[in-house]
Design goal:
There is one protein chain. By secondary structure, this protein is mainly α. It has one domain. 26% of the residues lie in helices and 5% in strands. The chain contains three helices and two strands, in the order E-E-H-H-H. The chain has a two-stranded antiparallel ribbon with strand order 1-2. A hairpin with a 5-residue loop joins strand 1 and strand 2. The longest helix is centred in the C-terminal third of the chain and has 12 residues. It is globular. The mean pLDDT is 78.
Amino acid sequence: MKAYELIAKINRDGELEIPKLHLKHLQENTPVRIIVLVHEADSEEDEETGFSADRFQTSWEQAINGETLSLDQLWEGVDVD
């Protein structure tokens, strides 16, 4: 199982909107597990960057376990002018 962290939105119809950039990693009609994290006013998360100690800990564990993407994969689909 792979894990992806991304920012998505809930639209007015209550549907989860995933940015097209991330959809290429998901196969059509494949079940996925979704964990919804909602920003709370009293959270320790930095509002400007979205960074928190918990997010750092999770990212660090993923890096140690080799759950990373190559730079080519990270830049795939990014239009730099």
